[in-house]
């Protein structure tokens, strides 16, 4: 098989070729590695390789799983593979040459589905940004235009899938990290409901269930089939989430009744929304109406700025914990971390227990408000991102702030910047590019980014749908309908890296 053939198939179709012995797994791996050699120097999507393990596995008999023999990539963040280095996008672990001592459960389930893993993809330090530009590895470029970033935190995986290195790759989403790069790279990205996929054995859950593991794909059915392969609790899980009576892949074939879909293009934090984002949602709304759905402009009665404050309280506190643990367990020093990471950790470390509990109680209020909203609507449609992908280096701490942050960190006073009115400006600076995704994380609701819009410069921007808890089936059904009505597979043929 050559690359021109390889690029035309999704993961399930490639696996079918392996299962019917029309092609062998090692041939697919050869295609993936050749494409990697061709484009990764320009993209910087894959940062850690495991070619020897992949070559051995590709020679085995892999014809039982849904994804038998297809090349696959892990995200370099909490998707650990025993005996392989992982950095979480941080120089702290990269310099230590930290080697995973066990597989993450999600990795086991991916391998049980038959994939051949040959590397780990670029991610920002600890996944804390909506772009992928870690100092440890450098910027990950967008295959639609190399001057632009691939998004974060699953930016390396998104870049690799869009560029045709693999048809499907590991991803995770704690504040939009599947949906943001899906939007920027023109992919399908589903964030599952809280508890749908496992985090063990290292954790029971991440960020109180706000962060979830899944994949980035070109086709809807690949995402559905991989969710079939990975969903369900394991020994570390805090609870069992109800599974559908049929597989998600089977559900895609069921007819979809007309839905009531609310939509909005307003930023919940009052920041600017680009014309591209507005047009993307307007065109999606018209498409939905043409398919028989009822589309109404409406939004939940949630204070978006308050929700953003509650999100970053947890986000910053989690970052503080990560930094503290690396210092405690591995002897990492401040010089091992990026300045932005140290500042965020400083903010998070000063949150009191009362602040944190109040923040979590607010999360419950947002769940109630969304449940009430879904009494009247089946789905909520909003932009995945506020604009097309930013250019590399465009999203960064202003130069004038750097010496101030360094000085305040030196005297343990950086947290003072996150007080009073400055906190709202801090939120706007951090979330203005991506103000739409955190709602689904805080409430634990399933959400997806669907690639239905490319602008005049051929840069994509996704349409995001949020569903009631546990209704991935509804999202996937609608996504399959949209994919059939407005196919996007041919778009990838225009990528020239």
Key terms for this structure?
497 residues; alpha+beta; eight-stranded mixed sheet; three-stranded mixed sheet; 18 helices; 13 strands; globular
Describe the structure in your own words:
- This protein is α+β, with helices and mostly antiparallel strands and 497 residues long.
- α11 links the parallel β9 and β10.
- α12 crosses α13, α12 packs across α16 and α13 crosses α15.
- It is globular and about 65 Å long.
- It starts with a helix and ends in a 12-residue tail after the last helix.
What gyration radius follows from the Cα positions, in whole Å?
Answer: 21 Å
Number of strands: 13
Number of helices: 18
Helical content stands at: 40-55%
> What global shape is seen?
globular
Distance between the termini: 21 Å
How are the strands of the biggest sheet laid out side by side?
A: 6-8-7-12-13-11-9-10
């Amino acid at each position: 098989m050559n690359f021109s053939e390889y690029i035309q198939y999704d993961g399930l179709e490639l696996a079918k070729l392996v299962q019917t012995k029309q092609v062998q797994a090692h041939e697919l791996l050869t295609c993936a590695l050749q494409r990697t050699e061709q484009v990764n120097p320009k993209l910087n999507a894959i940062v850690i390789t495991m070619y020897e393990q992949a070559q051995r596995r590709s020679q085995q008999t892999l014809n039982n799983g849904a994804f038998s023999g297809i090349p696959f990539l892990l995200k370099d963040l909490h998707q650990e593979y025993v005996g392989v280095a992982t950095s979480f996008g941080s120089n702290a672990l990269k310099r230590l040459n930290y080697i995973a001592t066990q597989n993450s459960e999600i990795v086991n389930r991916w391998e049980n589905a038959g994939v051949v893993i040959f590397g780990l993809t670029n991610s920002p330090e600890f996944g804390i940004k909506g772009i992928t530009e870690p100092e440890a590895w450098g910027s990950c470029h967008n295959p639609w235009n190399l001057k632009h970033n691939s998004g974060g935190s699953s930016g390396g995986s998104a870049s690799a899938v869009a560029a045709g290195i693999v048809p499907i790759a590991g991803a995770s989403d704690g504040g939009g990290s599947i949906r943001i790069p899906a939007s920027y790279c023109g992919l399908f990205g589903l964030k599952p409901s809280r508890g749908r996929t496992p985090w063990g054995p290292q954790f029971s859950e991440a960020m109180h269930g706000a962060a979830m593991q899944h994949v980035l794909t070109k086709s809807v059915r690949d995402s559905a089939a991989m969710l079939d392969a990975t969903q369900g609790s394991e020994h570390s899980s805090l609870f069992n989430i109800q599974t559908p009576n049929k597989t998600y892949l089977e559900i895609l074939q069921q007819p979809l009744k007309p839905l009531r879909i609310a939509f909005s293009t307003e930023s919940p934090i009052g920041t600017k929304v680009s014309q591209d984002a507005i047009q993307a949602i307007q065109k999606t709304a018209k498409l939905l109406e043409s398919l028989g759905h009822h589309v109404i402009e409406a939004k939940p009665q949630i204070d978006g700025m308050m929700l953003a404050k509650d999100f970053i309280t947890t986000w910053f506190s989690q970052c503080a914990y990560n930094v503290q643990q690396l210092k405690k367990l591995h002897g990492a020093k401040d010089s091992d971390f990026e300045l932005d990471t140290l500042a965020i950790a400083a903010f998070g470390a000063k949150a009191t227990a009362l602040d944190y509990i109040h923040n979590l109680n607010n999360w419950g209020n947002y769940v109630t408000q969304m449940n009430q909203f879904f009494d009247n609507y089946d789905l909520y449609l909003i932009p995945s991102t506020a604009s097309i992908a930013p250019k590399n280096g465009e999203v960064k701490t202003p130069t004038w702030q750097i010496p101030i942050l360094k000085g305040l960190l030196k005297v343990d006073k950086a947290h003072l910047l996150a007080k009073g009115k400055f906190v709202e400006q801090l939120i706007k600076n951090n979330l203005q590019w991506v103000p739409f995704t955190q709602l689904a994380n805080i409430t634990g609701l399933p959400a997806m980014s669907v690639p239905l819009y490319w602008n005049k410069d051929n840069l994509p921007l996704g349409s995001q749908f949020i569903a009631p808890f546990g209704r991935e089936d509804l999202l996937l059904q609608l996504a399959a309908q949209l994919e059939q009505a407005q196919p996007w597979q041919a778009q990838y043929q225009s990528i020239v890296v």
